[in-house]
Amino acid sequence: MEMENIVKRTTAGTFKLYKDFLSLDGGLKKGLEADEPLEVKKQRFNIRQLVMLQKITASWDCTDVIRKGMSIFGGHGVMEDFSALPRLYRDSAINELWEGPRNVLLTQMHRDFQRVSKWYTPSEAIKGILKEGDAAVVARFQAKAEELVAHPGLVAPDEKTLDVCLRWDKFCHDLTHAYQDLAMAEVEKALP
Ligand SMILES: Cc1cc2nc3c(=O)[nH]c(=O)nc-3n(C[C@H](O)[C@H](O)[C@H](O)COP(=O)(O)OP(=O)(O)OC[C@H]3O[C@@H](n4cnc5c(N)ncnc54)[C@H](O)[C@@H]3O)c2cc1C
Fold it and tell me: Is the pLDDT score of 192 beyond 90?
């Protein structure tokens, strides 16, 4: 049940994001400071972050789901001459790494949130990403985003920064799941 839910929400989130990406005039332009209307810049920012959020979360969840899938088959689950799961498990670990390893994308997103904060505060951005979200849930993400983005950066090797890094990692993972759950709810609402 849990595995099925992860697969469904990941798929729903991917299609929702792709639909929004296709609606962007000119796709994802380089840089965050393009000279265009504020609302367009904000939407471009949301999609830029969601591409990274989906990437780190979907690839991470994929490895977890395949590992659980292998465990269902016991010894056979880890034998390549019995099932494709060990190969998919190995491929899945590659997905976590290429096209942007997790830490690199987490750092990039933190920097992006800081760069736009003069014209798009973390709270506004969270509202923009979780548009149809429950107000109490959105408020919790907004409070965390304001606090974590206020930390100067994620590269200094001090204890406070290491703590912020761990919390930013979890925050981004949870934010993606909240977005995916909203996408899932949209699909379920549309079903006959
Ligand atoms: C099977 C395979 C096929 C590939 N095919 C291609 C291809 O066709 N074309 C292509 O261009 N590349 C390709 N790559 C390369 C791939 O994009 C890189 O391996 C990937 O981007 C990671 O870079 P890296 O290996 O240099 O690791 P590194 O960048 O050295 O990363 C190692 C670790 O350090 C962490 N790290 C790195 N920088 C930071 C930072 N600033 N802050 C915090 N942590 C950090 C990372 O998260 C990671 O955990 C392929 C890789 C594989 C495995």
Answer: no
Angle at 127 between CA 122 and CA 130, to 5 degrees: 120
* pTM score of the predicted model: 0.92
Q: What is the CA radius of gyration of the chain?
A: 18
Which pLDDT band holds residue 80 (cuts at 50, 70, 90)?
very high
State in Å: Cα 94 to ligand 1 middle.
Answer: 10
Ligand 1: which of 87, 103, 168 to mutate, most ligand atoms within 8 Å of CB? 103
Q: How is the chain split into domains, by residue range?
A: 2-190
Calculate how far, in angstroms, residue 87's C-alpha sits from the geometric centre of ligand 1. Answer: 20
**Residue 77 contacts residue 70 (beta carbons within 8 Å):** yes
